[in-house]
Amino acid sequence: MSIPLAALKNVLVVSCQAAPGDPLENVDALRRIALASVRGGAGGLRLNGADCIAAIRPETRVPIIGIKKAYLNGQLRITPDFAAAVELAKAGADIIALDCTNRVWSAGDPWQQLVERIHQELHLSVMADIATCEEARAAAAAGADMIGTTLHGYTEQTQNSRGFSWTLLADVIHETGRPVIAEGHISTPAEARRAILAGAWCVVVGSAITRPGSITANFVHAIQHSLNSGSAIGVDIGGTWIKAGLVDLEGRISVPARIPTQARGGREAIASATAQAIDRVLRSARGDGIEPIGLGIASAGVIDVRNGTVYAATENLPGWSGFELRAFAERRFQLPTCVENDSHAAVLAEMCFGSARHLSNFAAITIGTGVGGGVVLNRKLIRGQHGFAGAFGHSTIFFDGWPCTCGRAGCLEAYVSASALAREYRDISDAGGDDPGLGDAEMALKVSQLASGNDPIAREAYSALAGYLAKGVANLFNILDPEVVIVSGGLVKGKPWFVADVERRVEQMLHFGSLRKPCVQLASAGDQAGILGAAVAVFNTQEEVHFY
After folding, report:
1. Average pLDDT, whole number, for the chain?
2. Which of 69, 74, 72 is nearest to 46 (CA)?
3. How many Cβ atoms are within 10 Å of 380's Cβ, its own excluded?
4. Under a CB-based contact definition with an 8 Å cutoff, are residues 294 and 337 in contact?
5. Residue 279: inside a domain, yes or no?
6. What's the whole-model pTM score?
7. CB-based burial, 77-88: b 16+ in 10 Å, e otherwise
8. Position with higher pLDDT, 513 vs 363
9. 238 with 302, same domain?
């Protein structure tokens, strides 16, 4: 082969072509565009026709993927015969791209034979342009060196697909074991980056770079259709309920839906309930003539945002660990999908629509069954290498203290949570015998209601929690020195006196606390923070929107 495939690893390949009749349908014009692209950092070129390749080859050594477009009865075929491949090779192409779809073509050579002859007679690599995973498997079996998603959306079988198919990319990578080139409908740097993170060997971008007419049309469309008309579906998967809604750029939620999680049924039941919630919102939105720009899902558990997989989950969602949530949703609904940890989603909601709208650096703590949270530095959510950043509940506040569900002892979560509040109340009041049937969650809810009614014993239990929480918050101020620490969760909702107590105690714990008075605030994004934050994750994939 003329070049090692490694030469294209993790590079941008620019497709320099012009549509028939376009003012740029000129060899010298395309040569200039290609050279400008290389100067800008392109690591490869995809060029149509031997004359174009021959004009550019002497001026650059980047790999060239050569194609020859042929039309028959209005149908396009890429490099239909061996004679075309020979022309491209003589002009200087390093790789020959072929149409390897299963469409019937009455002229030219069978693509399987072309793969073999290009290898044996031209000694060049072959890129198989496909539209489906079935075609990709066939191309790999026939010996294609690399596989491109180029023709997805252009064949009769896939013509109803919108935009780049992330599901197809994932499936072809998984099932063929060949280098997979992401090509077709990739139009933003964010999408190119996502493709590489998803495992693409390289990315091919054409119209978004090389066709001024298409680029201009996109700007015109954006101006004519105000960004405020953009909406995304946000979903919040909890242990009891799955909530969803259509969210606009102002944080307004319409067509809300709520479905029981049915967590006891395991992965299939949770996924089914999630799909029901999404379907309910999507059908209602489309019934009103609204097409969501994407789908955001917030889920309990640790999330690998790179591929939308549930990295790890507790038994609150049994069988959820390892679930490829993004792939499931994109396959089912054909919408670009982002997946976030639910605590991180709450932080995004607070940053964009809540108390932290005007803050640059802050931390947030969510108190519920456990203790989660997140850190924002310079308006950027910090996720960490594996998505665990912000797990404040598992920071130690007492050496060798109460056991924690994580297996350690003395964690903040063991002292500040629903079960901890219930334990404090029972210890103070000896109330365990009064409500023997109440579990920790029910007891914590009762204590919360009593505390809001100024019950002295319930307030004393909350005072104990405030002391414990202050230790954890003081650690955050010492480590991060944030502008604010925001506290949220059902246990603290509507309890400004609790947050004020925490703030007072933190000031007493901090070195020079009176000189750098800590600010601890209640969250304001509300019960829909998961939905809002999931939608923000979608909005942040749109280059025109700058929540970060």
Report:
1. 89
2. 69
3. 12
4. yes
5. yes
6. 0.59
7. bbbbbbebbbbb
8. 363
9. yes
Cα–Cα distance for residue pair 168/183, rounded to 1 Å: 11
Residues in the chain: 548
CATH number of residue 216's parent domain: 3.20.20.70
For range 145-166, the mean pLDDT? 87
* Residue 538 domain flag: no
Residues 370 and 420 in one domain: yes
* Section 21-43 average pLDDT: 93
> In this structure, are 165 and 314 located in the same domain?
no
Query: What is the span of the domain harbouring residue 155?
Result: 5-221
How many domains does the chain fold into? 3
pLDDT at 6 over 70: yes
User: Do residues 211 and 70 both lie within one domain?
Assistant: yes
DSSP string over 356-394? TTT-SSEEEEEESSSEEEEEEETTEEE--SSS-TT-GGG
Q: What are phi and psi of 96, to 5 degrees?
A: -110, 125
> Distance between terminal CA atoms of the chain?
45
Q: What is the DSSP letter of 464?
A: H
Q: Which residues of 11-34 are buried (b: 16+ CB within 10 A; e: fewer)?
A: bbbbbbbbeeeeebeeeeebbebb
Enter the tokens of residue 545.
């929107």
At 206-223, the pLDDT tens digits run 989 998 888 888 777 666
Q: Which of 171, 205, 221 is the last residue of a domain?
A: 221
Q: Are residues 182 and 270 in the same domain?
A: no
Are 137 and 283 members of one domain? Answer: no
Query: How far apart, in whole angstroms, are the C-alpha atoms of residue 530 and residue 236?
Result: 5
Give the tens place of pLDDT for each residue, 258-281.
999 988 899 999 999 999 999 999
Residue 337: give its domain's CATH number. Answer: 3.30.420.40
For residue 40, give the amino acid letter. G
Cα of 535 vs its chain's centroid, Å? 11
Residues 516, 443, single domain; the answer is yes
Backbone torsion region of residue 526, taken as left when φ is above 0, otherwise alpha when ψ lies between -120 and 50, otherwise beta: left
217 and 234 inside one domain: no
pLDDT digits (tens, 9 = 90+) for 318-374: 899 999 999 999 999 999 999 999 989 999 999 999 888 888 899 999 888 788 899
Q: Is the pLDDT of residue 198 over 60?
A: yes
Distance, in Å, from the CA atom of 223 to the CA atom of 226, rounded to the nearest integer, reads: 6
Pairing of strands 75-78, 69-72: antiparallel
Whether 379 maps to a domain, the answer reads: yes
Residue 542 domain-assigned (yes or no): no
Sign of the dihedral through C-alpha 518, 522, 524, 530: positive
Domain termination site, one of 174, 201, 221 = 221
